[in-house]
Inverse folding.
């Protein structure tokens, strides 16, 4: 029998899919990929976040490179959550993919500067060189320019909740909080 919190998180993820579609389906597995870390504990490396931290519950936020500003409010929310529960219990990674309007090195520098300016301590910002990168396809991230963010909450590498174009409304924040609380519970 599912708890009320689990059902709320599941419903939030399902209702979030009513608009544009993007990302792995609920229940699918997060796979290995190697983005370049421009902030966080693995800064300067191409560490696979799900390989290194996959046994922990986590959040992968895929950010369309044309809309990087969409990431900051959510990154601050997740950074605050991580400060409460600890990075030994939950991890959060933002994956920005360069739309190709800037050189790879300039795009990485811009994303790193954005993370530093936001004052993030626990959330990692990572970069892929192209929206055509293999991980974008493997994670089924939409190429539709209307898709600004795809948020995947997972536990034991299995997607438990997701949002496309997470808006940061009070309802979104409550649903995300419920989803995070659900994956943090022992199974």
């Amino acid at each position: 029998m599912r708890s009320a919190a689990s059902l709320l998180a599941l419903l939030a993820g399902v209702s979030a899919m009513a608009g544009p579609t993007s990302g792995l389906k609920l229940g699918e597995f997060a796979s290995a990929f190697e983005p370049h870390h421009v902030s966080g504990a693995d800064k300067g490396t191409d560490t696979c976040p799900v390989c290194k931290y996959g046994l922990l519950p986590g959040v992968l936020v895929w950010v369309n490179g044309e809309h990087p500003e969409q990431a900051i409010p959510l990154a601050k929310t997740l950074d605050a959550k991580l400060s409460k529960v600890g990075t030994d219990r939950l991890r959060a990674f933002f994956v920005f993919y360069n739309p190709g309007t800037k050189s790879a090195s300039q795009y990485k520098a811009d994303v790193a500067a954005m993370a530093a300016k936001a004052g993030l301590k626990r959330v990692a910002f990572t970069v892929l060189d192209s929206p055509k990168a293999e991980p974008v396809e493997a994670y089924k991230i939409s190429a539709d320019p209307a898709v600004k963010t795809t948020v995947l909450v997972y536990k034991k590498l299995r997607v438990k909740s997701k949002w496309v174009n997470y808006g940061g409304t009070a309802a979104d924040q409550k649903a995300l909080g419920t989803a995070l609380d659900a994956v943090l519970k022992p199974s």
Q: What stands out?
A: The longest helix spans residues 71-85.
